[in-house]
Amino acid sequence: MNQNDTGPLPFKKEPKYEDPFLAAIKKNPRPLSMVVIGMIGMPLILLLSGPDRAEPSDQAPTFENSAQPIERMTPAPLETSPNTPAEITITPDPELSSTSVSAPGPLPFHEDTGALLPSPVLENSVGTPKRPSITLIIDDIGYSAALGEQAIALPGAVTFAVLPHTPYGKELAELANQQGKEVMLHAPMSNLANMPLGPGALTEELSKEIFLTTLNADIDAIPHLQGVNNHMGSALTEMAIPMQWVMEVLKARELYFVDSYTTAKSVAGKTAREQEIPTMTRNIFLDNVQSHEDIDREFQKLLQIAREKGVAVGIGHPYKETLAYLEQALPLLEEEGIELITASKMIALQRKTTAAW
């Protein structure tokens, strides 16, 4: 054996680790006793602190430095698109039924809307009138002699749309013509709300032969008419084939067409242009709400469109409130620098001042 080999080296033990905190407690046990007393005493103090002690709360915490309470945000209501009028129903003025004879059918309901639509002047206009011009059409003429006569007495070139086969429709059309006013047929057309249309109604259930016969009879019932607009029609004016039938008759009778635009899906104006029928679309309904303030607001919108675009088309009804307002407002148009023209003159003006027809 090598004398340098003295056997396995002895294992060197590492010093045992001792937590400094425990070592300190061993040297001085008093701090430990204070910790134990604190752990036991604090809950006892809270228990004996009486009714003012804190209770758990399910409410959100408040912040002392908040200047104002935080309010929950509420989404703003969606606005109806100006080009998408929502269909609404209006109960007719009771005066519309004040006749000495019974009306041959229900009172004239309509489904007008107050949506602001684009000006009937096309975008590629090559000219504008010398001064702003408006056309004002009074619908639903024929059930009340008194209100019809009051409407026809309105100053200026107001156009009157007469319902067919009504008690006073024919004589009021004669009176309007005698006073140099323009007359239209207010043709009843089926609506999405299935509201009663009265006599002479045009609906999708009719065969083409009966449809054409009905429309021609409606036209023949109103003397001196120069054009047609739709009464209601939110259902029928969305349908291409019935609108083609309408335009066939109007073309043969050399009449124009005004789209009352009771639905944003109307194809009536488009079909009329395709068939080369003189046509235009209304911009404003004046009296969805029958009060002086609301009628005035809509009338001012009509004038503003005319100022901006050159022309504008409005429709009103023979309500007492509407007629009283227009009796005051129409004589002031001259001071406003705005001309009131008939529907036929407005269509002719548009055809002259636009390049696309």
List the helices and strands and how they pair.
Elements: H1 20-27, H2 30-47, E1 133-141, H3 145-152, E2 159-162, H4 169-178, E3 182-189, H5 208-221, E4 225-232, H6 240-253, E5 256-259, H7 268-274, E6 279-281, E7 284-285, H8 292-309, E8 311-316, H9 320-329, H10 333-336, E9 339-340, H11 343-353
Parallel strand pairs: 1-2, 1-8, 1-9, 2-3, 3-4, 4-5, 5-6, 7-8
Protein architecture, described:
This protein has 357 residues and is α/β, with parallel strands linked by helices. The chain is built from eleven helices and nine strands. The chain has helices at residues 20-27, 30-47, 145-152, 169-178, 208-221, 240-253, 268-274, 292-309, 320-329, 333-336, 343-353, and strands at 133-141, 159-162, 182-189, 225-232, 256-259, 279-281, 284-285, 311-316, 339-340. Helix 4 (169-178) links the parallel strand 2 (159-162) and strand 3. The longest helix is centred in the N-terminal third of the chain and has 18 residues, at 30-47. The chain is globular and about 50 Å long.
What gyration radius follows from the Cα positions, in whole Å? 41 Å
**Contiguous runs where pLDDT drops below 50 for at least 5 residues:** 1-22, 31-110, 112-126
Name of the CATH architecture of the domain at 113-353: Alpha-Beta Barrel
Terminal residue distance: 125 Å
Q: The CATH topology of the domain at 113-353 is what? A: TIM Barrel
Number of strands: 9
Helix share, percent: 25-40%
CATH superfamily name of the domain at 113-353?
A: Glycoside hydrolase/deacetylase
Mean pLDDT metric: 75
Strand content: 5-15%
Order of helices and strands: HHEHEHEHEHEHEEHEHHEH
> What is the CATH C-level name of the domain at 113-353?
Alpha Beta
Indicate the overall shape: globular
Largest sheet: 9 strands, parallel
Count of discrete alpha- or pi-helical segments spanning 4 or more residues: 11
Structural class: alpha/beta
